[in-house]
Amino acid sequence: MEMKKVIIDRPFITLGQLLKEEAIIPTGGAAKWYLKENTVLVNGDADDRRGRKLYPGDEVTLPDSGKLVIESK
What we know:
By secondary structure, the protein is an alpha+beta fold. The chain has one domain (3-72): Structural Genomics Hypothetical 15.5 Kd Protein In mrcA-pckA Intergenic Region, Chain A, CATH 3.10.290. The chain contains 2 helices and 7 strands; from the N terminus they run ββααβββββ. The strands form 2 sheets. A 5-stranded mixed sheet has the order 1-7-6-3-4, with no helix packed on it.
């Protein structure tokens, strides 16, 4: 499984913002649908909240897209 580092320049990023910035979904509004249709793991636990705050050190596992690791700038 591929692991990609995502560098953020703010204290946290929401799960919905992450999906949009990584081009997994076309718009922020698609996050709700995407999270309902796909199992997304945050630090190993399923989470479907697009407003979930992700901090440096958090790991997000996406179906078919591998793992994203949040890091600060």
